[in-house]
Amino acid sequence: GDSVTQMEGPVTLSEEAFLTINCTYTATGYPSLFWYVQYPGEGLQLLLKATKADDKGSNKGFEATYRKETTSFHLEKGSVQVSDSAVYFCALNYGGATNKLIFGTGTLLAVQP
Amino acid sequence: DADVTQTPRNRITKTGKRIMLECSQTKGHDRMYWYRQDPGLGLQLIYYSFDVKDINKGEISDGYSVSRQAQAKFSLSLESAIPNQTALYFCATSGTGTGSDTQYFGPGTRLTVL
Predict the structure, then answer these.
(1) Residue A47 forms contact with B (CB below 8 Å)
(2) How far apart are CA B4 and CA B1, in angstroms?
């Protein structure tokens, strides 16, 4: 079945460091891919999405490119801030009649000043 | 005001009690979902509803029931709560057509069953 695998956390970085959070997926079809972010004590917020191969999603300085050849959707940011500290979830969804989000287990990012 | 709201935000209850978690949305979406989040396990789908007359089980529906009272309201019930139902519960919504694959989440309800 379909699944999403994320790198284990926590990821601890200093402010202004480069961030990569790895995400790979297994899919029988061609889903849309998502990154959601969960700040402490809050619900999940959509961070970015990509709907087809080679699409790049971007938001708030974060980027991720839908790589069909490597079945990956790695999240990157050039310079992290303390306010980026959160749990990041990679997910896939086909939409349509089923429309079920399949999540990875989440990666905790801690940014230190 | 938040588009997706959940009540209560926190609840502590005892084993065997009946609990209802409520979700309301002002996004005008037809589709609503209930998820459960456990540490290290990501989110798992409990139930989903594509319209008022359509209710479907998700991956982990045992021990839970739902009610779709209106397009904007979707409630989750635990008929007889047990300690391993202690978790963070999220409601989500999505539209139809283009962009229907994107779900929007409420702030969550933290449930503790003693």
Answers:
(1) no
(2) 9
